Amino acid sequence: MIVLKVDNLIKDYPTGFLRKKVRVLKGVSFFVNRGEIFGFVGPNGAGKTTTFKAVLGFVGITGGSVSIMGRPAGDVSVKKHIGYLPENPYFYDYLTGEELLRYMGQLHGINGKALLKRIDELLEKVNMTHARKVQLRKYSKGMLQRIGIAQALINDPEFLILDEPMSGLDPIGQREIRELILEERKKGKTIILSSHILSDVETMCDRVGVIIGGRVVRTGELGELLEDIHTDYEMLLRDTDLEVVDRLGDLKVKVEKRAGFIVLRFDEDIKSRVIEVVSSLGADIVSLYPLRKSLEGLFVKEMGQNSGGEQKR
Amino acid sequence: MFESVVRSPYRGLLVIAFLLVVSIPFQKRVEGMRGKFRVVEESLYFSSASLKRLSLGYEELLADIYWLRAIQYFGGRSVEERDPELLYHYFDIITDLDPKFVNAYRYGGTFLAEPPPLGLGDIERGIKLFDKGRKNNPENFRLPLEEAFIYYLYVKDYKRAAELFKEASEKPGLSEFRRASLRGMAASSLSKGGSRELARRIWEEIYRTTTIEGRKEFALRNLKELDAMDMEDLLTQALRRYIGIYGHGPSALSELKRKGLVKEIPKEPFGRGFVIVYKLDKVRSKTLLEQELKYNTAYLSGASRRFKRSFGRYPRDLEELKDFIRENGWDFPEHPLGKEYSYNPETGTVGE
Amino acid sequence: MKTILAVAYNTFVEAKRDRVLYSLLLFAFLMILSSLIFASISAEQYNKIVKDLGLTAISLIGIVISVFLGTGLVHKEIDKKTVYNIFSKPVRRYEFVVGKYLGLSFTLLVNTVAMGFILFLIVLYTELRHGDFIRFYYGGNYFMEFFKAIYFEYLEFLIVIGIALVFSSFTTPIMSLLFTFFLFVIGRFSGDILIFAEGVKNRVLRGLLEVIYRVVPHLEKFDVRREAVYGGSINPELILYTTAYAVIYASVLVFLSIIIFEKREFR
Fold it and tell me: What residue spans define the domains of chain A?
């Protein structure tokens, strides 16, 4: 079952004094299935946030269509079941963490004891109980991010939209948030999260959409996407004669000397052949590691195809 | 429902227009109770000094605003509603803020001094404003000139008028013709005070220089009255000669022409014609006669009311009223037809 | 309705925690208190000076608060991106606008009541000390008219907040401030438009001026400060019609803000 379906979404912004139109989204299409974590990745300025704003009705739609839980973009009735964490969340800095959650809960129509209980739970969950009576103006960026996630969860939403949930967090914080997100999925919730940091997505997401220059260029299971990417390997040999190099002969291997080591660089495809040759010569292998097997390769590849892709609007 | 309205600007604006229309009856009720204009008396609180400070250096602009308010306020009211004290205060403030605002003295002074319905008939305050204007604008010839008009026409102080005409004639920058004409006005005011000749020239001057429609008409009417008076004199002379010759009055005015005593019976300037008052051996313009009668009866009725204020009753008869008037040093206006006024001692009203 | 109240309450909390508000209120209180000093050197016009100065202080400060907080009302939320939090919740845009308006109106109500109360104490004090003089000069103490004058001042705030809200929903605070101030001045002199119109001969221009007169706010009609000093008829009928006018006009402004706000994009 599809929770969010974005079909050929186009968005123009008028800019400058002459209101010249700039096309920020040039036909974004993807869908999110119930119960999955969908990673929406792309470089800064690719249109991730704009897509979310269009989905939530903050901005109008120039073309295409959005269906969120079966309703059009920005539909108020749907928002009862949605949690949203904005990018770089800014909240009323005169409120305390607790007051913010209360206000946000009230906007969802949650009141009284139920609300108080929910606030306690969430503060505990995002590890912010100690700061509940502190005004938000005194919060660090990481604390704001946590309280932001807490307010997104206030209504126990079916569908979570998280814009850059990991930004501003230290590694411990990132791990906590990751666990939190995975926990929500375990409860059967659907999550879409955006990021320009690929490791976030790699470790959590079931499916990924790659957006570059206002277009979703690839969607699919993470594994599928990564299959397309050829990864280089580096092998470090200690102090060997250059005989090895000669013997590699017809194999495509780049050789260089680095700090007394010999470094071999080659494609994944010939990994086993290289290992074979090297061990047959009795060379001392210090280490063998993949250079990059990640979405970044995909980014780079796709951006190359998009002829440099438009950057920030 | 509500959202579909606010999302369509046309429908939304329609609702707004509707609400505004709904508000109009309320606006009108409030206006009915409080007046359209903010009551101006508030400005009596302000002294010019405090206003100057309030104006933050933009005194002239503030003077302009006050000027606009003053003329709009006083232009749009019936006579009873106009308060000379307030108007004087207004123009006093305006001219304090901007002492060179010559038209404010001219307009304010004339409006204050002129008799109703054109002005407020407050000669004292009008003159005060002109005096202030002359002090602040010693080079301007119009201020003494127009003040002289007031002295000549309404105060009938011909000596003071002559002084002011002379003052006007001595201002720099006048054309020789204008200077000579002003000197002439000064001379005739002094020698032939109250002469129709000078009055005519004054009214002609007012007629030429005023931009206010009402004043123009007023000046024209005065000029016509002066013409009518000249004609009355001419015809009265002829009438008296006729009586001298024939021992009795003519049966009709045309008789005077037929007997060659006048070349032509002139046309009465208001188109009403002339009548012979046999009792007084006078020829009168119908217009002037009626005007005089109306004025006299109103004046006498007023005197009778004054009598009551002093003695608690109306005069018993006309004789008592006459005595009362003479004792006070006023003139008793004779009946222009040479007869007695009718008098009702119950109501104190004097009639034709 | 609950949503509107939540937004309104938060707006009130925001104002309550704004230091600017307190400095303005402090200024108002100082002005009200200083009236006592002026009154003591006023040649026995105690009551008049206290009331004039006090009521002016309440009106002036109230209007400054309305304008300054009003012009930031919507714009600040867009500028600081807090709208993203609001509208990711089931909140309709008109609920937000109405809530914001009611929140600031309530803030002004609290402020006006507080300032009015302090002023009333001072008026009461002069009345106790110089009651004979006051009755001699003014023929009474006109407590009811005093409260009515404060009520009318509050009605004016309601309209000024509305004006600020309209501009706040489509332009920057500086521009809103300017526009609001403009319209405020026009509103304080609206009667002049009509007087001016009556003097215009051209029919089209005259009609146009009359329409303009009917559309601009008649703020001068909310000034009954003089009656609070000298007495005068502020009868229930006048209160009713003036209130009705204020409510209708404020509704127009809020409605207009909603129409504008519906079209806004939060980029």
Answer: 2-227, 232-290
Minimal Cα distance from B16: which residue of C? C252
pLDDT of amino acid B148:
85
Strand order in the sheet with A37-41: A82-85, A159-163, A190-195, A37-41, A207-212, A215-221
∠ CA A58-C11-C15, nearest 5°, is 135
For the residues A34-48, what does the mean pLDDT come to?
A: 88
User: Cβ distance B276 to B239 under 8 Å?
Assistant: yes
- Structural domain of residue B314, as residue ranges? 289-351
Are A90 and C80 within 8 A, CB to CB?
yes
Q: Report the 10 Å Cβ neighbour count for C37.
A: 11
> Does C92 lie at the interface with A, CB-CB under 8 angstroms?
yes
Counting as contact any 3 or more CB pairs under 8 A, the partners of B are C
The helix/strand/coil state of A212 is strand
Nearest-5° angle of CA C164, CA C12, CA A109? Answer: 110
Task: State the pLDDT confidence band at A154, using cuts at 50, 70 and 90.
Answer: very high
DSSP strand pairing (A284-290 vs A261-267):
unpaired
Q: Which residue of C has its CA nearest to A107?
A: C3
Q: Which residues contact B33 (CB under 8 A, 6 or more apart)?
A: C235, C237, C238, C241
B-chain CB neighbours of C263 within 8 Å are 9
Within a domain: residue C103? yes
Least confident of B175-189, B337-351, C178-192: B175-189
Which of B11, B36, B50, B61 would you mutate first to test chain C, the one with the most C CBs within 10 A? B36
Residue C18 distance to chain B (closest CA, Å): 31
Number of domains in chain C: 1
Of B3, B9, B20, the CB nearest to C94: B3
Asked if B121 and B168 sit in the same domain, the reply is yes
Residue of C nearest to A149 (CA): C85
Q: Does C22 touch chain A (CB under 8 A)?
A: no
The ipTM value here is: 0.87
C13 with A91: Cβ contact below 8 A: no
Task: Please give chain C's pLDDT, 267 residues, in tens.
Answer: 889 999 999 999 999 888 888 888 888 888 888 877 776 665 556 677 788 888 888 999 999 999 999 998 888 898 888 999 999 999 999 999 999 999 999 999 999 999 999 999 988 888 887 777 666 666 677 788 889 999 999 999 999 999 999 999 888 889 999 999 999 988 888 877 877 777 777 889 988 998 999 999 999 889 888 777 777 778 888 999 999 999 999 999 999 999 999 988 888
Domain covering A232-290, topology: Alpha-Beta Plaits (3.30.70)
Segments forming the whole domain that contains residue C129: 2-262
> Do B14 and B47 fall into the same domain?
no
Query: What CATH fold (topology level) applies to the domain A2-227?
Result: Rossmann fold (3.40.50)
Question: In a 3-state reduction of DSSP, which class is residue A7?
Answer: strand
